[in-house]
Amino acid sequence: MAAWDVSEDSGDDYEYGSDAPIAKPKTIKSTAKSGVSSKTKAAKPTKKPLEESAVVNMDDAEDGFSPGPAVPASTMVPKTIEETYQKKSLLEHIILRPDSYIGSKELIEQEHWVFNSETNAMEVRKITIAPGLYKIVDEILVNAADNKARDESMNELRVSIDPENNVISVYNNGKGIPIEIHKEEKIYVPELIFGHLLTGSNYDDSEEKVTGGRNGYGAKLCNIFSTEFIVETADKERNKKYEQVFQKNMSIKKAPKITANSRNKEYTKITFRPDLEKFGMTIMDADFVSLIKKRVYDMAGCLGEKKVKVFLNDEQIKIRSFEDYCKMYLSQSDSPDPQPIFVKQISPRWKVGFALSEGQFRHVSFVNSIATTKGGTHIKHIQDSLVKIIQPKVNTKGVNIKPFQIKNQLSIFVNCQIPNPTFDSQTKENMTLKPSAFSASCLINDELFDKINSKIHIVDRVKGIGRQNQDKELKTTDGSKRNRIAGIPKLEDANWAGTRRSHECTLILTEGDSAKATAVSGMGVAGRDRFGVFPLRGKLLNVREANHESIMKNTEISNIKKILGLQHNKEYTTLDGLRYGALMIMTDQDHDGSHIKGLLINYFDKFYPSLLKVAGFLVEFITPIVKCTKGNQEISFFTIPEYEAWKLNNNGGKGWKFKYYKGLGTSTAQDAKKYFNNLQLHRKEFHTLEDGDRDLIDMAFSKKKADERKEWLRSVTPGTFIDHSASKIRISDFINKELILFSVADNMRSIPSMVDGLKPGQRKVMWSAFKKKIADEVKVAQLVGYVSEQSAYHHGEASLTSTIVGLAQDFVGSNNINLLSPIGQFGTRAEGGNDAASARYIFTGIPSITKTIFHPDDDKLLHYLDEDGDMIEPHWYIPILPMILVNGSEGIGTGWSSKIPNYNPMDIVDNLKRLMNDEEPRKMHPWFRGFQGDIEEAGENKYKVTGKATIDEEDCTIEITELPVRTWTLPYKEFLEGQYESNDKEKAGGFVKDIREYHTESTVNFKIKATQKGIKEIKEQGIEKKLRLVSTLSTSNMVCFDAEARIRKYNSVDEILKEFYGIRLEYYQRRKQYLLNKLKEDFTRMDNKVRFLLMVISGELKVQNRKRQDIIADLKAKGFTSFPPERSGRKISEANQAGEDADDDSAGYNYLLSMPIWNLTLEKVEKLKVERAQVEADLNETARTTPKQMWNKDLDAFVEEWEAILQRDEDYRNNVKVIPRGKKTAKSAPKTKAKAAPKSLTADMKTEIVPVNSNTLSMAQESMGKAVIPSLAAKSKASGLIEKPLTNFFQRDSQPIKLEKSAFADSDDEDQFIPLSKSTQPKLEIGTPDRSRSETPVEAQVKPKPAPKKRTIVAAPRRNRKQLSDYESEDDLDDIAPARKVSKSSESDDVSASPRPTKRAARTIKKVSAYIELSENEEDASMMQDDDSEFEEE
Prior knowledge:
By secondary structure, the protein is an alpha+beta fold. It contains 43 helices and 48 strands. 34% of the residues lie in helices and 16% in strands. The strands form 15 sheets. Strands 5, 6, 7, 8, 9, 10, 11, 12 and 13 form a nine-stranded mixed β-sheet that branches. A six-stranded mixed β-sheet has the order 22-21-23-24-28-29, sandwiched between helices. A five-stranded mixed β-sheet has the order 14-15-19-16-17, sandwiched between helices. It is elongated.
């Protein structure tokens, strides 16, 4: 029999209401192909229109497609070529291989969402269906829904399912199909689109269509796999009705019935009977019906908001919106509360819903009403944008949630219309269209996500997953109850730990190894069977909000779990499962020891709160912090406030000796034994948890409770201490009476004072520096030791070193005014100061400007603190201007943090003077010394800080000459290197081709070769944004301690300025009164001396051979004033301990009785009279001076010093030119114009390099006195230096450098170097000198054409004076010319004197080519020859 082949494509989805022209179909020809039983060729039919073609019964043809029963290989007849290689028509192929078109026709068990008629909701369950059968029904439903996209008037969709009669019908009242004959194909349009493959109106891809049809199969597939297929449609425009019946898999086509449309309606109705036999079924079973019903409800969900009523078996589905539809998937929850869902119309074509899943990602999505059950790019598009927002919110504190873990917690519902979508197959279960072609995207932004999260709480759900993962990991570090533990070297385990007597054991946790030694000494008394000890390394981690990774990596926590046998998440009611029955905390009695106790309590409250409810588990071991002794009496104090209160009530401890115990290491082994012998006193048990205790612990350690901690700290009262006499320590008392003192101390050392701008550590350094009276310079390592010794500094040397270095740093972004001198490498802006040298290599001193800021006359007005009976630093200094604004400050304490930017000292001075004149201050803005960028207001309490960069578009180069404040050069370089162009797709987007750097230690200079695309992007995005040249400064967190030591937040700079002004003005009044009193005392003292001498000379007062008491009685009788000597804090304490009377004024007349005998001479008496007159004049002058005049005078002195610093900065920038590597220079040496010399050269000034010319030489002559600079013209032939001159530089540091030899000629042109020859000029390269003054000045390197080596002259700078023992050997001195002698009678340095060379200078000079001493009478000089390479290396 014949098989039928459609020679050309001729079919499509049916398209309602479409009048689009359709390609002319071809005739159908009968062929006799291999695989058909007949071997004779069929006659070739003549071409006829399709409607006249003979209809062929396909039943027989179907038989030909069947491969038949298997034939045994032994009897199988070999196939012919024609039987092996076959060609099938499209219709044959669809029936033979339906998988490519409708999916499998076999019954398969799959998990699907289906409609449950009993619950009236969706449920997911396994059903057995033939996917192909489901697909042919779905095609008809989608086509009906498509009609709504073509006809907005469509408002009804009816679906009828009759399982008993195997009939399904789909009706819609949208625009009907045109009922007329297609002019090219000669058949009616309804027949064309329902009865012929590859026909339709969706082939014009230039049109945007949001319909389901695309490939021209659609409804024809339903026709092909149905035993009967009936098309009904009504055409209102043509007033016709059309009905046509197809039977037997579209093989039989009956003639259409066309009647009049008397009711003038429009609709289309498809009724069909699926060929169940082809799908291995006999009836429509319950699984299939429930799935089809679900698709009908899908239509209601997709079309409900478009005002389309959907009916199922003549019953309207009550779904009015997509949200109503989505809720059908959530009503199956067992919870009485409905599961929340968030649904939003994101754009006209996108409506999405979000809900939580049951641990597995689910989605319900529709593209143009097509159910994309496998998802696709539209689902991934939403997923990715959602995960991108969620992941950073949950991946905190070491949590590492993967994207798939987030997706598994989500249910996503999508109803979208996408123009011309593409799918991976005709089944259309997976959309493949790229998101860029969506026309309208559906990205989730932060604002939308916040709304989503507030409704469904997805972040909390995902965090819960993260916590579950963390709990699993934490359990891997659990301990267990066993007798012995290995792998913890510092553990001294109790012998009974982990045994049946483990409940009797106590584990002692100590603060460090030294404390462990104390505990071990005590255990010698208590016994090693019941006591174990383990030292903690510093402070335990605050686990309250620590990230998981930190907890897992924390060795201390892991060891504690193993030693105690703790198991994660276990609820403890007894201690039977632990290796120890008690945990004893043994720390220092200072504030840090209290913090360690709190951190341990915090750890158990976080992970094992049940243990804190077991009586006797947590105890502490207390030791004295102060011991007072008097004879055989001994009193121990466990808190400082308790000790201070005792002193107050016991005459200041007069007659007692006291000793401070800074830590457990202070206690001796004998002390430890004494402690353990009296465990009843020293062992204190913590009370079990009470109501409110856990909230207090959380408040003390949670970062989220900062505001509550502030209120908590405000509640503290002076003298608060915990009563250790109680039998048990309540946790609430520990937090409110002991831990709170640590928090107060933490703020004190972290937050600066508004008055002097210093923190306690910085104040100790400055006090020690002032006390040491550093004349020139001191090594930082030595100053560290001095500060620790003199100021009772209780922290580590590294911390103190960083404090000193920080006070001396002067690079951009550090201090506007460095209070200490940076003599050496104190760090640069390259690494933000982290590149500072070690303390043993660098020196510091007190610059003169510091002495103008902290005036010595204020020292006596300050309130000094007391430590161990010694006076230490003051409560605060009182500078002449608010240093908190000059240098700014940053700090983080407990509950408080502070961040104050720097301000211009000149602006501050001007505003102080305005306040003195009763004027309002002008607004000040942040300012940083040396910063060349811009700082602009960007809103309230906010500033925009911008660096500098220029672009050369022609050369595609960018030059960056300034970075935002505190954007350090090295990290910024790393950012630029990350912008290199790359072929790697992951690193695409780079715009940098090459980077060259020309920085100095104080300036920034990047030269970037960029790509053309990069230059374009920079111009589009803005150079500041693209190059990250913008940062922000905030003035909204200016927190300081005020003058009364109360922590306070200042709302504005003016508020700080005005408060400082009031305090400072009051102290100027106090200073005036103090000076008046001192001058009055000096005048009285001087007057008494003159009167005393005159009385002795005249014989009115006899002192020879008399008792002291008699003389003093006479002095009192004659009205002489007693001036008792002042005593330091230590001397007063010693006097108290010795029982001396501090009121005894017998020594008050020593100023008279101890005068030398030569004071009785006439000359001395006259001199004392003159001095008395001068004191009287000073007294009168001081009395006339107002406090504001004093202040103005101090400010003027400060301004003079400040302007000198700014001038030196300017001179440094202008006089030093860096020649970039490879940069071409002019053939002739450039002219260098000298700057005018400053009025004075002081020891604290920084090194400055000045080009040598006639001006600077004359300056040197003036400053050097006798030194004579001979001309080059007079000395060139004798010295032979004309071929290789050396440029000399002068150092503005200490005394001027003495020139030992000059190679320069006198010249009328003050800026012109003498040429080497007529043909060759030297090339002058001046490197960037070190501004720190720790190195010799940078010499200019003159590079002439090759010539015989000649002698070279080096001028060595003055360094700090050292003893002969400082030199490595006597040979070091042999190479150094003898220095000029200095007159012994001279009290000051002689500028003509050559200072003693330092050890470093000696070694440097030894390595140079030659050293010649210049004297006034010498015309020639001796010469030493050496290798130039050694000099260049040095």
